[in-house]
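Purpose: get a first structural picture of the assembly so the mutagenesis plan has something to point at.
Setup: two entries, given in the order below. No constraints added.
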Amino acid sequence: MKEIKVAIFDLTDCEGCELQFLALREELAAKGKDFQLANWRLLSNGASTGPFDITFIEGSPITDDDVVAVKKARAASKTIVALGSCATFGGLQAALPESRRALNIQKVYGEKYKATSRSPKNISYYIDVDINLPGCPIDKNELERLLAAVTSGKKYKEIKYPVCLECKARNNTCLFLEDGFCLGPITKGGCGAICPTNGLRCYGCFGPVEGANIEAMENVAGKYTDKKYLKDNLELYFKNAEEYKDYITKRK
Amino acid sequence: MSLIIYDSQIPDLLVELAQEFKLYVPVEKDLASFSGQYIWKEYEKSDRLALLYPLTVASPKEFLLPSKDVLFEYDKEEIKKTKSSPQIIFGLSLVDLLAVERLGKVFETPVTDLNFKERRDKTVLVAVDKLSPPQDIEFDVYLQEIGDGVFASFAGSKLGKKIISKKYFENHKVKTPKIYTKKDSYLSDPDLSQAVAKSKNHPIWEELTKTCFGCGICSYVCPLCYCFDTSFEIDFCNNQQGTECRNWSSCLLKDFAAVNSCNYREELKNRIYNWYFHKFVRMPSEYGFEGCVDCNRCIVYCPAKINYQKVLRTVLNDYKKRTKK
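Result (structure tokens, whole complex):
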């Protein structure tokens, strides 16, 4: 079998997603030489400049150097995977309103400081992305499914059902009904409903599911929850997602 | 004379049955925030049974059509069929028993689904209810509660006879009361199917999109929602191996009717209508019964609190008004 060259880059993030590769260490070991980690900062040996078959990029670009690095990675790679919600949607750091960001910078660095960083964006804002693998962090099983598809030359099939399917398959009752709010019904599945299963409502970290009815969420959850709280929670992960942006434009 | 069993004897019976079968029973979910809710789980001796449960979250469908059902495994060219192990579902309500019966009919009409049949043939059904045992529904054992903690026992199969001849059952001179419920009036309304069939343009479907998330919970908890999606799962370590799975899905999901570049039900209102159409128009004409046993799970677990009975009533009333004129 042909060997596959893999690179993993990280930008502004918590490294939680790339750590999921270590959760797959037995599987990766079984793959042996066929799966070559040619460039990964967390591995000490080897830092190939490419070309790569698959490049995973975690985190969101926030400096000019980051943007250059991302563009270089695109040029050197056949397939680019945005790894995790920071790469897919800009992540938690993108949830902050821009006006607040300017205020915070002033508060922390003083009035004279001129910020060199950009506001965090999803990677597809700068380059073409082939596969988005959202999650905060990503799910180990989904990563394995993606790796199985790309290494065998098949198309990775994105998940198109909401968290509720996995939640009900795990015999959970409904946190939305208990607490009046949960983003599960409009959030993409693939996490195995890990939060609701352990009593915590869904925060939407996988982003909106295909066909997410955000209007219904506002109508129904709005009956029980404060409007600002609802908006803040929706924008925690959804802010840069296409489905959400479309909804906001349509509503105006 | 009739055979009875006391509830104090049931744990001993279950311990014995669990030696031979995978045994599933209804219990109360124990997490504090989930109190008052019931689920099916594999029996352990420490379990406190919730016989005569009001409602379980997942329906008994999960034992015959699991959320991820491995149809076969393959290794290069070789295909290995998956085998299921013998199981007992102990404590089905009459409503859930009826659902299992209908699910069985669906999966043998017009052709038998072999994966489903394999599992169904290895499944023993033990129903527990206050109502009298039904004449036209298959079961292995039926326990009718005739007093507090006292159950009259009926066998519906050879295996059932073997079970109720165990030492935990006693002969007693009791008369079992005949209790049947009336069928809900609107579900048995002869116009229901026609009313839904002729209501595609009713404004209610558009109205429902204001609150319906399209999340499909009503399908996942429904004992008679059997439509599925398939997936081909390649093994990462060895690309020559993998499994073909049949997974839960729902016609309320946007992707459900998407084929290549065409989506037959792109709009949510059409998907909502289709859910009703399949249950109350297509299934009656294909199988002779509705895809609904009135178990109420979809009402209880709908996050938007949509009540299908109210929807049907509106549709039915408006149809009657229209046709009278």
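The interface with chain B takes residues 1, 24, 27, 30-31, 144-145, 147-149, 151-152, 154, 157, 160-162, 164-166, 168-169, 171-178, 182, 184-186, 199, 210-213, 215-217, 219-220 of chain A (CB under 8 Å).
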